[in-house]
Amino acid sequence: MAAALLVAGAAVTAAAPAGVAAERPAAAAAECERAREAVAEALGVLVARDGVPGAAAEVVDPRCGRREAARGVADLGTGRPMRAGDRLRIGSVSKTFTATVVVQLAAEGRLGLDDPVERHLPGLIRGNGHDGRTITVRQLLQHTSGLPDHMDALADVPVEQWRYRHFDTRELVATALKLPRPEGSWHYSTTNTLVAGLVVEKVTGRAVEAEVERRIIRPLGLHDTYWPGDGTRIRGPHARSYSALLAGTGPGPVDGTEWNMTLGGAGGALVSSPGDVNRFYGALFGGRLLPARWLAEMTRTVPADPERLWPGARYGLGLIATPLPCGGRWWGHAGTVPGGHRALGAVGPGGRTVALALNRVPATDRAEQGFRAVVDAALCAPGGTEPSQEAP
C-alpha cells in the first residue's frame, strides 16, 4: 500500500508540471496581448484626443517578441493607414548615433572624452565668451558646454527662407556663437552635436555621417536608416509629416515632409524606422557597440532642464534617462524635426525596447504627456510593476 501511494504520488507529481506548463504559455500570451492593447490604446489617445494624424510603435520584448501597433493615418491626402514599418525623420535620436561613435573612438584611444575641443578643432570655438580650450568633448555630448543652439537663430526667420537650403556645419556653429550665452549649467543645444561631429571628422579623416554608417548602420543591418544630405524627400515607404511652422490656406495641418535637414546635421538629420531604432538601442545596451566600461560612461548623467525635456529626466552622453511609473527607468532619446515628425527610441527594464513614430509634433503639454505615456505602456509590465532590473 505504501508503495502504491508512492507511485500514485509520483504520478501526481509528474503530471503537475505538464498541466502548469500548459497554463503558463496561455497566461503569457494573455499578458502579451494586454501589453499590446495598452500600447495601442495609448496611441489612440494621441490620435483621438490630441489631434495627431498618425501614431505608431514597435515594441520588442524578450517574453512577447516583436509587436507593432498603430492608429490614425500616415497620409491625410490618401487616408493611408499609419504603419510602424514606415520611415520617418528621427531628429535628435540622431544624437545617440553620433555620441556612440565618439565614445567608440574614445574606447579605441583615439580621443579622450575630457579632451578640450581646442585640441581637435583649434580656433573653432572662440568669441562672445566661448572658448574651446575650456570645453571638453564630454561636455559637448552632455550639453554642459554652455554653447547656444543655432536652431534658436532661425526662430524669427520665415520658414520658406531656410526650409530647402543647404547649411554648412561650420556656418551653423558660427551662427550659434553669435547668440546670447544660455543660462544654467545644462542647456540642450544641437550645436554641441555638430561640433562633436567635427571632432569625429578631424580624428578619423572621414565625415561623421560616413563613420556612423561604417560603424553602426551597416554592421547592424539598419536598412531603413540613412543620412539624407541635401535630399528633401524621404526614400522608400514613409509617413507624411505635418508641420505647425507652415502656414496653409485651409483649416488642416500643412504637409512638411519635404525638408533639407542639413540644419540638423549630426544632431538631427537621420531618416530611420521604428524597427531600426529598436535594433540600434537594443544593440547599444546589449553590448554590441561598446564595451561595458564605455557604455557606463554614456550613462553617467546630470540633471536636465525639465522645461526643455520633462520632469525627472537626466542626460548622459547622447542619452536621456527617465523614471518609469512601474520602477526603474528608460534610456534613449526623443527627436523632433521642423517638418513635423516626432520620434523616440528607448530601452527599459527587462530588456524591452520601444520606438515611436508620430507624424505631427504634440501641440500641448497634455499631448506631450500622452506621447510619453506610450513609452510607459510599452515598457511597464501589463497590469503590475516590473522588477527593478535596469539597463546600465
Spatial sequence of strands, sheet with the most strands: 2-1-14-13-12-11-10-9
Radius of gyration: 23 Å
Number of helices: 10
Helix content: 25-40%
Shape: globular
Flag low-confidence runs: 1-23, 383-391
SSE run: HEEEHHEEHHHHEEEHHEEEEEEH
Percent strand? 5-15%
Count of DSSP E strands? 14
Helices and strands: which structural class?
Answer: alpha+beta
What is the CA–CA distance across the termini? Answer: 58 Å
Structure description:
This protein has helices at about 1-50, 95-105, 115-120, 135-140, 170-175, 190-205, 210-220, 275-285, 290-300, 365-380, and strands at about 55-60, 65-70, 90, 125, 130, 240-245, 255, 270, 300-305, 315, 320-325, 330-335, 340-345, 355-360. It has about 400 residues and is α+β, with helices and mostly antiparallel strands. The strands form 4 sheets. It has an 8-stranded antiparallel β-sheet, with helices on both faces. A two-stranded antiparallel sheet has the order 3-8. It has a two-stranded antiparallel ribbon with strand order 4-5.
Summarize the structure.
The protein is α+β, with helices and mostly antiparallel strands. The protein has helices at 2-48, 94-107, 117-120, 137-142, 169-177, 190-204, 208-220, 274-285, 292-298, 365-379; strands spanning 54-61, 65-72, 88-89, 126-127, 130-131, 242-243, 254-255, 271-272, 302-303, 314-315, 320-323, 329-336, 342-347, 353-358.
